[in-house]
From TrEMBL:
Name assigned to this protein: AP2/ERF domain-containing protein
Domain (AP2/ERF) ranges: 5-61
Keyword field: DNA-binding, Transcription, Transcription regulation
Provenance organism: Leclercia barmai
InterPro entries, per database record: AP2/ERF_dom, AP2/ERF_dom_sf, DNA-bd_dom_sf
Range of residues in the leader sequence: none
UniProt keyword annotation of Glycoprotein present: no
Domain of life: Bacteria
Length: 100
């Protein structure tokens, strides 16, 4: 995997798949794989906004996203966290300053 110029996005070696990942220190949560770098970056942005609100560091302007999109991402993260509740990996997720 290669790092994209956009926060939270990696690119497959063949450049055909873009992966959005939420990172917190050494922990990470995959958010999905996408056909375009922009979609992966937007997904990462929504995750950052869901966790950090106005303090989020995003790839695109905050105004691009609706409250409903952010709420849906928050629900998605909550479900993923609940599924990983017993996993030590990523169990320390908290609303702290983002680490990129």
């Amino acid at each position: 995997m290669l790092k994209s110029k956009l926060n939270g996005v990696t690119v497959s070696n063949k450049g055909r798949v873009f992966t959005a990942t939420l990172r917190m220190g050494q922990d990470s949560m995959p958010l999905g794989q996408f056909k375009t770098e922009r979609l992966a970056a937007e997904t990462h942005d929504l995750a950052m906004l869901a966790l950090y609100g106005d303090q989020a560091i995003t790839n695109y302007p905050r105004q691009k996203y609706t409250t409903e999109q952010i709420r849906n991402m928050s629900d998605f993260i909550d479900r993923r966290m609940a599924a990983r509740e017993n996993s030590p990996s990523f169990s320390q997720l908290s609303k702290q300053a983002p680490i990129q």
